[in-house]
Amino acid sequence: MSAAPADWPLWEVFVRARRGLTHLHVGSVHAPDAELALHNARDLHTRRGEGASIWVVPAEHITATDPDDKDAYFDPALDKDFRHPGHFELPEGVEHL
Amino acid sequence: MEHTDLAAQRPPGSELLAEQVDAAERDLLAAARPQRRAVGQASFDALIDGEHKVEPTDWMPEGYRAGLIRQIAQHAHSEVVGMQPERNWITRAPSLRRKAILLAKVQDEAGHGLYLYSAAETLGVSREWMLDALHEGRQRYLSFINYPTLTWADVGALAWLTDGAAVVNQVTLCRSSYGPYARAMVRVCREESFHHRQGFDALRVLAAGTPAQRAMAQDAVDRWWYPALAMFGPPHNRSTHSDRSMAWKIKRFSNDELRQRFVDICVPQAEVLGVRLPDPALRWNAERGHHDFTEPDWDELRRVVAGHGPCNRQRMDHRRRVHEDGAWVREAATAYAAKHHGGPQHSTAHQGAPAARQGLPA
To answer: Which of A5, B118, B184, B260 is the most buried (most CB within 10 A)?
Structure first.
């Protein structure tokens, strides 16, 4: 059993529903190479015309933040409320600002 | 092909269930709100109590993980082995249109199996391990699949009743506490309503046909009613896993509540079809606001689950055989990849892949 799917890498699948939208992650497939990963992704994720374009990316090529570092990583953004325009009070009557 | 909006294709009459799926999806978004940081059991309890979703990277009790693996794998196996009773009629469908519909439905079942295997993989088990467990009888699939599809009407009755029962069950699983499972269920439910509806449609044609066709439809309903009722599992007080599953919010309703909901849904649909549900005790109980009905024969369910149903051996033999017969395809694909791309480079441990750890699948 040397060539079972267990030996096949995992690919993450991104589908663009239609022109003008971004590719969104929809799931993952196992496949021995990129071409078959695309085929599998098409068969699995676009059976009802959900897609105009598919990307597949080897899961091992995705570098992700460590969930355990979540606080240290993202906390610095939390105290910069002024990045949101709602932080600033506008005098009454001011428009287009 | 133009992108088509699934919502726009929703058949009239399925709004209630479809709305529940939509609502569950909104809950998934709401559950994504930030929660207080905690570790270990406390963090898990906070997620469950706060109606947040548990994700693959979160700490979870071993029993929660093991219970989910058991349930999701059994669900995935049911989708895969469940192709067999329907495949039986693909080459003998009464028209090209029915054949195309049945092919698409069976292909969907394979897809549902894959969504679910992906969800189970996020818990740290490999697909091969699950398939081995199925082939060696350590994991199971739903018992109704061990009954034969004797006539074309069985294809309609099977879909109307067993897919109908699956929809009732799965709509509630869209709110499961485990994120990847809940997300897979949202997708499965949207597609399942096509399965349910095409079965009703096929049966309706027969039920409005010649006396022989009507008899065929009735005979199929007679044989599939109780296997469908048994799909919800034993009564709550005899169910091994129910209490814990409900405490952990893996499932949200008891087997009995779901079975009652299914019966109440089916009665008016059977009237429209003009078929009789094979239970002389079936009647409206105004006091309870539900239909009274006869429970399935639990001894029969136990026998079928233990491997003694009409088709258990046939289903498993076929499953093992096609897996072995397909080995050369998998080997050829691997050899081709090695020759042309120098891959597959190495085995990807599911726990190790960052994307899998992030719970991206499903």
So the answer is: B184
